[in-house]
Amino acid sequence: MKLSDINKAINGILTGDPEKEIVNVAKIETASENEISFISNPAYAKHFYTTKAGALLVSMDFEFSEKPEHLSVIRVADPYLAFVSLIEIFNKDTGKRSGISEKSHIEKDSVIGKDVFIGNFTFIGNKCSIGNNTSIFPNCSIGNNVTIGNNVTIYPNVAIYDGTVIGNNVIIHSGAVIGSDGFGHAKQTDGTYKKIPQVGIVVIEDDVEIGACTTIDRATIGETRICKGVKLDNQIQIAHNVIIGEHTVIAAQVGIAGSTKIGKRCMIGGKAGIAGHIEIGDDVILGAASNTTKSILKPGMYMGYRAKQMRDFLREEANINSIPDLKNKIKKLESNAH
């Protein structure tokens, strides 16, 4: 692909050879003369003069003293997003499969759309609906009354339980479990626990991505709902009746207890824990390994074992770090007093 075509595709400003052929995208440290990379993080600016890449995407205000002779530069509004677009362009035809394996099993009353791929040993239950251009890789289990939209990709070894509703353009990675029973047990007078039937469903809206080995439990009654545009990393636990608002992103190993509602555009760092029956408002950021036990409705960044606003967390950390000095001062005062 010529640089002139790339420049046009990402609406950039090109300095260099418009006829140069680019065959792929690459990391700035390892790119070759027929590959393109980018600088978005200032930490990588040092590679501008040493990279062997044939072209680089940089911001409109990126400054350099002298451009290496072999290097072409494309200025764009957002180098990272432009690079993502190029990844899609250079990889748009890879990995597409079609056809239904004879080694799969589909119940007769299920409806399969056009251009669907279903891999070996995948099971699809009764009264399911699978949309157009959807790919279901080998060894998946799809329960009864499951609805799956268009352009969905379900990777190997995914289990989707009865009644689950999945929208369009959803990606579900290997090992994910959608619709398993919520953790509901009622303590009886003799100290034993009686299982509470979990009869609700899971609803996954459009443009959601679910990471490997993530578990989303069905509602006790009603719905567990993952709203449009949510991105979930690997190994996340989402309990029964949780609602996650649009365009929220959650990193790995987060646990969210039952009936909690999380707002729109939130960011939740890895290993964060969120208690049940609380509400997290829109535009809240929870730091890695934070623990949230009470509702947070005010937008902002929160950190800590008992999550609090960032400034309060940092103040407490500073006070804790000053304890050794205070201890030494007290010892000196005590020794002087004697």
Label this structure with key terms.
338 residues, Udp-n-acetylmuramoylalanyl-d-glutamate--2,6- Diaminopimelate Ligase, Chain: A, domain 1, 2 domains, ten-stranded parallel beta sheet, 29% strand
How would you characterize this protein structure?
With 338 residues, the protein is of the alpha/beta class. The protein has two domains: 3-90, Udp-n-acetylmuramoylalanyl-d-glutamate--2,6- Diaminopimelate Ligase, Chain: A, domain 1, CATH 3.40.1390.10; 99-313, Hexapeptide repeat proteins (UDP N-Acetylglucosamine Acyltransferase, domain 1). 14% of the residues lie in helices and 29% in strands. The protein has four helices and 38 strands. It has a twelve-stranded mixed β-sheet with strand order 6-9-12-15-18-23-26-29-32-35-37-38. It has a ten-stranded parallel β-sheet with strand order 7-10-13-16-19-24-27-30-33-36, with no helix packed on it. Strands 8-11-14-17-22-25-28-31-34 form a nine-stranded parallel β-sheet, with no helix packed on it. It is flat and about 80 Å long.
